[in-house]
Amino acid sequence: MAVVGAVIIVIILFGLIALGMSVRVLREYERGVIFRLGRLIATKGPGLILLIPVIDRMVKVELRTVTLSIPPQEVITRDNVPCRVNAVAYFRVVDQNRAVVEVENYLVATSQISQTALRSVLGKAELDQLLADRERLNEELQKIIDESTEPWGVKVTAVEIKDVEIPEQMQRAMARQAEAERERRAKIINSEGEFQAAQKLTDAADIISTNPASLQLRYLQTLLEIGSNQNTTVVFPLPMDMIEPFLGRADHNRGGSKAKPDAPKPPPHGGEPVPGVEGSGLAPDPDPGPGPIVPPEDDAPGDSSRPTPGVIPPEDDPPPPDPSLPPSRS
To answer: Count of CB atoms within 10 A of residue 126's CB?
Structure first.
C-alpha cells in the first residue's frame, strides 16, 4: 500500500508540473507564437492558452510601441564638420509571425539599422541643415528605417534627432556669425527708423509752412520747453528772416559784399542776353554795304573842266611851300 501511495503521489506531482507547463496567461498587449515540434502552427492570445507539454513551445511577442535610443554616432557632414548625433526611434510589431521567424532578434536588428541610417543620412546634409531642417531629416530617417524593417513585421512610426554636439571652435565661429547678423539687422532697423522719421519731419514741415500761425505756436512751445527747467542760461531763438534786412542794409552802407550791385550795363548788340536788360542779345545792325553806282551824266559840249572817270588830271602848278616846315635838302 505504501508503494502504491508513493506512485500516486509521484503521478500527481508530474501532472501538476505538466499542467503548469501547458497553461499560459497572456496580457492584452502580448501575443504568443506557437511552435509544435518546431513548426509554426498559430498565434494565440491574449488570455489563457493551453499547450501540450514537451511538444508545444511558445514565443511571447509584445505589441506595444518600443522606444529605442540610438547611441551617439560620430558623423562628418557634407561641409566637413565633425559632430556627434544621437536620436530616438519609435516602432512596434505589426506581424508577430514574421517578427519571430524572419529575424533573430528584431530589437537588436532595428537598433543596428537605425544607427546605419543615421550615419548615412546625416553625412549627406550640411551643418546648417542639420541644425535648422531637422523635420525633413527625421522624415527621411523614418522612411529609410521603415523600409528596412518592413520585411520583419516591424513598423517604425517616428525617428527624432535628439542632440547635436559640435566642436567648441565651431561654436565660437557660429556665435560670431550670429552676432554679425544681429548687428546687420540692428543697422537696417536703425536706418529704416531714420528714414521714416525724415519722412514724417518733411510732412510736418510742409504742413507748418502752409500756415504761419502754426510756426509761431511752435516757436512759443519751444520757449515754454526752454523755460520749464530752472536754468541759469536762457537760449532765446531769433528767426534769421527778422535780422536779414538789417544785415543787408548795414553791408550796403559799408560797401561790403552784401551791398546792392549796380545795374548791369547793356552789352553791345550781338552779345549774350542779360536777364532784365532790354535790348540785350539782339543781332547787330546789318552792314548796308556799298551803295548803287550812278553813272555820270554826259558833259555838255565844249565843257572840258569835268574830269574823265578813271583819268587823273595833271597838276598845273605845285603848291607853295609851307614856311613852318624845314627846307628840303634836295
So the answer is: 14
* Out of 3-17, 137-151, 307-321, least confident range: 307-321
Residues near 246 by beta carbon (within 8 Å), at least 6 away in sequence? none
Domain range list for the chain: 13-61, 66-166, 168-214
d(CA 160, CA 169): 26
Residue 78, number of CB atoms within 10 A of its CB: 13
Question: Residue 49: helix, strand or coil by DSSP?
Answer: strand
Question: What's the rounded Cα separation, in Å, for the pair 53 and 16?
Answer: 11
Residue 86 Rama label (left phi>0; alpha psi -120 to 50; beta): beta
Asked which of 44-48, 220-224, 298-302, 313-317 is least confident by mean pLDDT, the reply is 298-302
Whole-angstrom distance, CA of residue 237 vs CA of residue 67:
79
The hierarchical CATH code for the domain 66-166 is 3.30.479.30
As a dihedral over the C-alpha atoms of residue 164, residue 167, residue 169, residue 174, rounded to 10 degrees, the angle is -10
Can you tell me the distance from the alpha carbon of 327 to that of 324, in angstroms, rounded to the nearest whole number?
A: 9
The three cell numbers of residue 119 are: 550615419
Residue from 212, 94, 108 nearest 153 by CA: 94
Angstrom distance (rounded) from CA 156 to CA 163:
20
Distance of CA 92 to the CA centre of its chain: 45
Q: In whole angstroms, what is the distance from residue 66 CA to residue 88 CA?
A: 10
Q: Please tell me the total number of residues recorded for the chain in this structure.
A: 330
Instruction: Please tell me whether residue 309 adopts helix, strand or coil conformation.
Output: coil
Give the tens place of pLDDT for each residue, 112-143: 999 999 999 999 998 888 888 899 999 999 99
In this predicted model, what pLDDT tens digit does every residue of 218-259 receive, in sequence order?
777 777 777 666 666 666 666 666 677 777 666 666 665 444
Compute CA distances 55 → 18, 37, 97, 104, 172, whole Å. Answer: 11, 6, 19, 22, 67
Side chain identity at residue 120, one-letter code: S
Tell me: pLDDT of 330 over 50: no
| Amino acid sitting at position 263 | A
Share of the chain above pLDDT 90, in %: 35
